[in-house]
Specification:
CATH superfamily of the largest domain: Regulatory factor, effector binding domain
Structural class: alpha+beta
Radius of gyration: 26 Å
Number of domains: 2
Number of strands: 11
CATH architecture of the largest domain: Alpha-Beta Barrel
Strand content: 25-35%
Shape: elongated
Order of helices and strands: EHHEEHHHEEHEEEEHEE
Number of helices: 7
Strand order of the largest sheet: 4-9-11-10-6-7-5-8
Largest sheet: 8 strands, antiparallel
CATH class of the largest domain: Alpha Beta
Length: about 250
């Protein structure tokens, strides 16, 4: 090449980690075009701007966007709000997965922290239940009902239980559902302040774990509402060994 500022199709493919065929497909889809071409079917060359565009296309593909969606992004041909919403949802799902993996890795990381619980829409059924077996079955039944009626919100933890220290056997079984859900048993929760930590171990040990939050609140002059949540990260669906269960124990702050 006479022009050292141009990249061959092979150089672009190698730098981005894709094939020449993929780049040619981008051309066919109207996403890019060669900045220089030797004859009708000759070698293709690209500027740094086109190289950057190829890299952007690949990043968007890795995020799950289709080539048609990417073309619309480049041409400003459509409302970008749905695309933004999709990417935000993917980000939230990724954050939840990272949080879970970190908690698996740091099994002794049981530090109590003050947190903010984001607003969410939940499907709620309330029952009186005492045994662990009954509670497990009721949570599963509620999850099935919620998913059949409304689907699930994958950007939030799937389910949790909520109860009052004054009536610990009267338990609300809660399942995260899409924000637009409406109807019986649907509740819109606003943002809440809380203290929490991650409990590693059997569900039978949760009452003692809850006492840790109460003691921490008393020592730090934090006023609790008396309402607690058990948010289930990993349990019977993932493990037979109860010591591997991970439950986020949460106490709501006034």
């Amino acid at each position: 090449m006479d022009n050292k500022n141009l990249f061959s199709i092979g150089e672009v493919a190698k730098a981005v980690g894709i094939t020449r065929k993929t780049i040619l497909n981008y051309e066919t889809k109207g996403l890019i075009k060669p900045d220089k071409k030797d004859g009708a079917g000759g070698n293709r060359y690209y500027t740094i701007d086109t190289f950057t565009q190829v890299r952007t296309i690949r990043v968007f593909q890795d995020l799950g966007l289709s080539l048609d969606e990417i073309r619309e992004y480049f041409s400003d041909a459509s409302d970008l709000s749905p695309m933004i919403k999709r990417l935000e949802a993917m980000r939230d799902e990724l954050n939840l997965t990272i949080e879970k993996l970190k908690e698996r890795t740091h099994k002794k990381s049981d530090t109590i922290k003050e947190i903010t619980i984001d607003p969410q829409t939940i499907y709620v059924r309330t029952y009186n239940s005492v045994s662990i077996a009954d509670k497990t079955n009721l949570l599963r039944d509620t999850a099935l009902e919620a998913m059949r009626k409304h689907g699930t919100d994958t950007t939030r933890r799937m389910y949790f239980t909520q109860y009052s220290s004054a009536a610990p056997d009267e338990i609300s079984y809660c399942v995260a559902v899409p924000s637009e859900s409406e109807g019986e048993y649907i509740k819109k929760n606003s943002a809440l302040k809380a203290i929490s930590f991650f409990h590693h171990g059997a569900y039978e040990d949760i009452p003692d774990a809850r006492k840790r939050l109460i003691s921490y609140a008393e020592e730090n002059n934090i006023k609790l509402t008396g309402v607690f949540r058990n948010l289930y990260l990993e349990g019977p669906p993932q493990h037979k060994d109860k010591s591997k269960f991970i439950t986020q124990i949460i106490a709501l702050i006034e």
